[in-house]
Amino acid sequence: MDRRAWLKRGGALSALSLLGAPAMVSELTAKEIAEFNPRPLADPVALNFNENPFGPSAKVRQAMTKAFDLGCRYPDGLIEELAEKLARKEGVSRDHIVIGGGSSECLKITGATFTKGGGEIIAARPTFLAMMTFARQWGANIKWVDLNEQKAHDLDAMERNISDQTRLIFLCNPNNPTSTIVDKDRLVDFCETASRRTIVFSDEAYYDFIEEPDYPSMVSLVREGRDVIVSRTFSKVYGLAGLRVGYVIARPELANQIRRNIPANTNVLALKAAMAALDDQEFYNFSLNKVKEGKRLMYKAMDELKLEYVPSHTNFIFFKTGRDILQFNRQMLAEGVRVGRPFPPYQDWCRISMGTIEEVRIFNEALQKVMS
Length: 372
What we know:
The protein is an alpha/beta fold. It is built from 14 helices and twelve strands. Helix 12 (281-304) runs parallel beside helix 14 (357-371).
């Protein structure tokens, strides 16, 4: 059976699953399929948005189903319930928590809140752009600082660029698209020092995937009352990207400024899903283990092809193709796989997201063909 026939078979089996017939997905037990909800194979395989290929979990789906009758209610009470739950998780009081429609909304609103009318944001290049792109529309200026040779944030250069116009320093750590983390001791020192002069925003969307032991979250500095803001999301390890739930943790004075500018609340189904996800430790562990398994398979394929890559602390890998990324995108799409967009100035590097084990194997086969 060729790959496209296999994909069609997978799609047909997924359709049967919706009708009550069990879907056949290799590598997983029937219990795992039911509880962890792997997405069906698609053609092309989409590995370009850093989504979790699993979820929502069975427990989360049950919570959403039970919440249908609350669809006639405004979500304010559930926002408070989730905020209290997150406050306990992060070791802060409820007034430190701001919930938004995905962490991207929190990033955008934070950027606009503190830089509208001409304030400056210092940010790495390349990094996740949501904050800077939105803030620029409100009059912000962006001071870009190139990554260092390890493709991580150059904290020394960022510190040198702080001026009396700087309102925010944006750290995406682990960084998107390079999957790198900052040395933990230098990170704490930088955030402590820089937050005396301006606000430091630590985007920790991929924090759960960090494999270095005892790596600190900057929530510890928020608890100390520093001018540090941390963002987290339910889109990655919890598998809720389509439901749009994220949050920031900040000292109450900063949190109140952000909260006043959040344009719309998320919905009751998403809020119930997020609360159930926080309690579903089994799915959380399963997600992390599957990401590690997928990365091992991709590393092996890249090693065999002698491709350079960055050891990843995320659910994606950044690797060197040696050819223009737009050309590589077209070649991989012809083999049935969507990969990441360009991330200047790394025009011959590619970001590839983890998928199910079946999707990873399809990627590895396509990579072998394209790079041969």
